[in-house]
Amino acid sequence: MWKYYNPVRVLAGAGVVRQVSEYIPEGLILLLTTGGFSRRGVTAQIVSDLGADRVMVCDGVGPNPELDELEKLTKTLREKKVSAIVALGGGSVLDTAKVLSLVLADQDAVSLANIFRKGEKHHWTDRLPLVAVPTTAGTGAEVTPFATIWDSITRKKYSLSSELVTPQFVLLDPELTVTLPHRETLFSGLDAFAHALESLWNINRNPISTSYSLHALRMANEALPIVLREPHSVKMRAKMQQSSLLAGFAISQTRTSIAHSISYPLTVHFDMPHGLACGVSLSSILAKLKDGGWSIQKEYSQLLDHTEQVITSYPLLEMAKEYCSWTDIEPLIDEMYDPARADTFIGNVSSESICSIIKQSFAD
């Protein structure tokens, strides 16, 4: 038995961000973004399209939304009576918006700290309308029913999961991604690869998620190398956005797996960018698939070999070692085994097998 559900509506094409007002109800709009888009004038254009008298801009969203910062932002915004949210940015902006869409609509004024640090149970019953405008191509957060929250106090990563977390509308405008720097483009692309691969080698995969994963890999295999050489190629930027979207649709059904399990301590302890933290182990896991002789490798061997060639063509180890070394990582191996993620892998996973994978990933 398998099932499929994803409620998001997608509009894709160059310039579609100018249609954002068509998807927003009456009332005060919260525009969440980063300072970069404000400096480049994108924020001002969207404010103009929405109507300046009803938009409140918050352009201070940083990488990896922090639990305490989300609490502070929630308290500030509760008094504003926000009616809808537009999220313009990468995964961190989208995750922040997804969290706020729930907590600002919640009548109980629930504390995120109590939910995640103290383990209090809470049932989400409502949300604010949310339009996601992704400006990177990798996270897939625009179509997933979960949001990542980071906690530097406890050095943990939490996941807010609910069907209500999924944005109602997504505007994929490739023109918004052409200014993304080389490294951020690469790291975002690695995240898309990780999502597609982890959904494919996942015990929860189904015919629809598998179709999404395979098509996402084919598109990323072609588009990422070109985008990194020709960053202003709107056509290839669009293809990477679509690859990310499809991979996001895939993990919305299966969740992520072993590479994400490995990645979280690398980000929490060493501030390694999420895409790099996921990508650095992918080639080692692909090798493990070959050694294990699993059917998934045999069935899609040509595609997976091509994907491995693309991934290994970039100096991921050298980049990862800018943040930490094997000596730094070794004491954290047990933390890298997160059963909620690692146990979705089609093979047996343990701290020992993760140690083997990460050691191989960081071998000179």
Structure description:
A hairpin with a 4-residue loop joins strand 6 and strand 7. Helix 7 packs parallel to helix 13. The protein has two domains: 167 residues, Rossmann fold (3-Layer(aba) Sandwich), CATH 3.40.50; 184 residues, Dehydroquinate synthase-like - alpha domain (Dehydroquinate synthase-like, alpha domain, Up-down Bundle), CATH 1.20.1090. The chain is built from 17 helices and eight strands. The protein has a six-stranded parallel sheet with strand order 1-8-5-4-2-3, with helices on both faces. A two-stranded antiparallel ribbon has the order 6-7. The mean pLDDT is 94.
Q: Could you list some keywords that capture this structure?
A:
364 residues; alpha/beta; Rossmann fold; Dehydroquinate synthase-like, alpha domain; 6-stranded parallel sheet; two-stranded antiparallel sheet; 17 helices; 8 strands; 11% strand
Count of individual helical segments = 17
Largest beta sheet: what is the strand line-up?
1-8-5-4-2-3
CATH architecture of the largest domain: Up-down Bundle
* Spatial separation of the terminal alpha carbons: 44 Å
Rg over alpha carbons: 20 Å
Q: Tally the beta strands.
A: 8
Give the SSE map.
Layout: E1 9-12, E2 29-32, H1 35-39, H2 42-50, E3 55-58, H3 67-78, E4 84-89, H4 91-103, H5 112-116, E5 130-134, E6 146-151, E7 156-161, E8 169-172, H6 182-200, H7 207-229, H8 234-254, H9 258-270, H10 274-279, H11 282-292, H12 295-299, H13 301-312, H14 316-320, H15 326-329, H16 339-342, H17 351-361
Parallel strand pairs: 1-8, 2-3, 2-4, 4-5, 5-8
Antiparallel strand pairs: 6-7
Helix pairs in contact: 6-7, 6-8, 7-8, 7-13, 11-17
